Amino acid sequence: MNSTTRISAMHPMLQIAEAKFAVDYQRDYFADHYLKVTTAYRSSADQFKAFQEGRSKVLCGNHNTYPSFAIDFTVFDTKGTPTKIQDDKPTWENKYYTPLGKLAEKYGVFWGGNYKGFFDGPHIEIPSGLIAVEYQMLLKIQGLYAGALDGMFGKKSLAALSEYCKRNKLNPNASHNVYGVPWNNSDTWTHLWTKVFGADESQWVAKWKAARAQFGLPA
Question: Which residue has the higher pLDDT, 121 or 178?
Fold first, then answer.
């Protein structure tokens, strides 16, 4: 799949957050600037290119899952008109990106400005613990996981994921982050997601909300 900025290619949690960010940013911080998503899903090839060119600090990450666990915003100032939005200019001054930290805290996502060692002001992603809950929920729907939806991707979660991979002839050797979440095994994630929610992006938010409600999780 090619890289895309489509809102519908984001995980529903980010689709919901993105809409709130856009409104709050102009209302509460910079009325003469606005946010635009400029990266949602990024292919592995494009991620490698971005890393080589110094546009990314990592070889793989949460942009490389579909639906994506991460998005990048670009801030534009409103020099154009609503009918000539192409005249608007991007700005990269940090002061225009620091409000994203407050909005991320407000809406329960992670801001790239809080990375240790480097500043990634445009970047927003789903926290690892919540990604783990997503895996657990989908594996539970598949009847493979009987544990709690607690975001702790331990032995039971890994066993369920391994069994899913085995049944569907997928590579079980995912790389895991410090929380044990197989965050960059994008093929497995996409297979599991579409197995549960289908391939129609337009239906994802509604189906995801229904699944969350089934298990008493907020959406």
Answer: 121
Sign of the dihedral through C-alpha 153, 132, 184, 140: positive
Lookup: tokens for 148: 């709690």
Q: Which two tokens stand for residue 161?
A: 């994921």
Give the count of alpha carbons within 13 A of 85, CB side only: 9
CB 155 within 8 A of CB 163: no
How is the chain split into domains, by residue range? 7-125, 128-214
Measure the CA–CA gap between 159 and 144, rounded to whole angstroms. Answer: 9
Query: Which residue has tokens 């529903």?
Result: 12
Give tens-digit pLDDT for 110-136: 999 999 988 999 999 999 999 999 999
Angle at the Cα of 141 from the Cα atoms of 136 and 142, rounded to 5 degrees: 95
Q: Is the CATH number of domain 7-125 3.30.1380.10?
A: yes
- The pTM assigned to this predicted structure is 0.88
Give the percent of the chain with pLDDT over 90: 64
